[in-house]
Design a protein that fits this description.
This protein is an alpha/beta fold and about 425 residues long. It contains 17 helices and 14 strands. The mean pLDDT is about 95.
Length: about 425
């Protein structure tokens, strides 16, 4: 089966490599010539555990290729996936579909024979029908169907998510399209992965609704954490007690500095706009976004209070910059909101991150001292702030830290450590909701 993947970013590259691993012949197409050159040279432009080996193996097997040319990849394809970016549009919060629609026009010009065009990008309800309209206008003779197949890939665990998914959602409106997509995903039958077949609009909404719900759980537990601090409760104990109820579940009940990344911020905002346009506001999602923004501000206040009321003239060691571990993604990371505020009030920042430094240099203010070694970042610091829960930070040598650090403040924004462990080494512990 021949597959063309429009877009070689996070979703397109991971999906294309995984489809190739399934046995399909996949061509990833991207307008970014530099990115394609990198991929053809064996260099992966993003950090995702295991992706470099997966790509190399399938390129070597002749099942995966990269190009900037739509022809002949589109004409030979049985299925063409649109996996381009849908960033938040400036000014109104809607998902910007300019890349999706341009992809549709390019696809229309190169179609040959029956083809299924599949929206893989996260797109507002109704996008698949707009893609269909564009293609029919561009190429009235084309024989095709449009389907929706939203992705549910977690950065840092994307390959496993693709290979062992909770579910595969397929929005289809013809037996031919359903059959081709079913054949492509057939390898998942071995693990009995649920294949959920629905209409286009429902499939498009599943992704937004799922991400909004997960984001809501995060904002909810962060509000509970703030209450815990006022009444003397421990959010860990509260979250565990909640999560033991099967109706609630344990996942995403982890208090912290707020959510970030490529999906939750833009998807919650887009869902709010979609709902408003259709006269059915999502008030809970609106509150989720507001709480998340306030949580990041609250973390600045927490660090300031831990330093005695002012960060001016203080050196702060920040451990972790990315929005989550096992990725180099800095999009909407809490560090982007917290660190500039600290620097504006006179703090000096010494930062460490296993993968995020290169992206951080582009997005954070100048003047940050980036360190290759964890203990180099900590040396001489007045306070340590654990911002992202990388595994490297879960087993810190506090006896060594005690010898090289200047202050006694340890701010654990991810609740990685038990308070007693930190205070036992002579530090002042400041967690979230504890």
């Amino acid at each position: 089966m021949n597959v063309a993947m429009i877009g070689s970013g996070y979703v397109g590259l991971v999906s294309g490599a995984c489809f190739a691993e399934f046995g399909a012949s996949v061509t990833c197409i991207d307008v970014d010539g530099e990115k394609i050159e990198q991929l053809n040279a064996g260099k992966i432009p993003i950090y995702e555990p295991g992706l470099d080996d997966l790509v190399a193996r399938n390129v070597a097997a002749g099942r995966l290729a990269f190009t900037t040319d739509y022809d002949p990849a589109i004409g030979n394809a049985d299925l063409v996936f649109i996996a381009v970016g849908t960033p938040t549009r400036r000014g109104d919060g809607h998902a910007d579909l300019v890349y999706v629609f341009e992809s549709a026009r390019q696809i229309a010009r190169h179609l040959s024979g029956y083809t299924v065009i599949v929206d893989k990008s996260t797109v507002p309800v109704g996008t698949a029908r707009q893609v269909e309209r564009i293609i029919r206008e561009e190429n009235p003779q084309a024989d095709f169907d449009v389907a929706s197949n939203p992705e549910f890939l977690r950065e840092g665990a994307a390959i496993n998510d693709f290979m062992r998914p909770d579910r595969v959602v397929l929005g289809v409106e013809s037996e031919r399209a359903e059959k081709l997509l079913g054949e492509l995903y057939r390898p998942l039958n071995l693990i009995e992965a649920p294949i959920h077949i629905t209409n286009l609009e429902s499939a498009e909404l599943v992704k937004y609704a799922s991400n909004a719900f997960l984001a809501t759980k995060i904002s909810f537990i962060n509000e509970i954490a703030n209450l815990c601090e006022q009444v003397g409760a421990d959010v860990h104990a509260v979250a565990k007690g909640m999560g033991l109820d099967g109706r609630v579940g344990r996942k995403f009940l982890h208090a912290g500095p707020g959510y970030g990344g490529s999906c939750f911020p833009k998807d919650t905002t887009a869902l709010i706009r979609i709902a408003q346009e259709h006269g059915s506001p999502c008030r809970i999602v609106e509150a989720t976004v507001e709480v998340n923004a306030a949580q990041k501000v609250r973390m600045v206040k927490k660090i300031r209070e831990a330093l005695g009321g002012s960060e001016a003239g203080k050196t702060i060691a920040v451990l972790g910059l990315t929005f989550k571990p096992e990725t180099d993604d800095m999009r909407d990371a809490p560090s982007l909101a917290i660190i500039p505020n600290l620097m504006d009030k006179g703090a000096a920042i010494r930062a460490h991150d296993p993968q995020g430094v290169e992206e951080s240099r582009k997005l954070l203010p100048e003047g940050i001292s980036y360190c290759d070694d964890i203990y180099e970042a900590i040396s001489g610091a007045d306070a340590i702030v654990l911002m992202t829960e990388w595994n490297e930070y879960r087993g810190l040598d506090f006896s060594r830290i005690r010898e090289i650090v200047k202050g006694q403040v340890f701010v654990d924004l991810r609740n990685v450590y038990e308070p007693g462990v930190i205070t036992g080494h002579g530090f002042q512990y400041h967690g979230v909701g504890r």
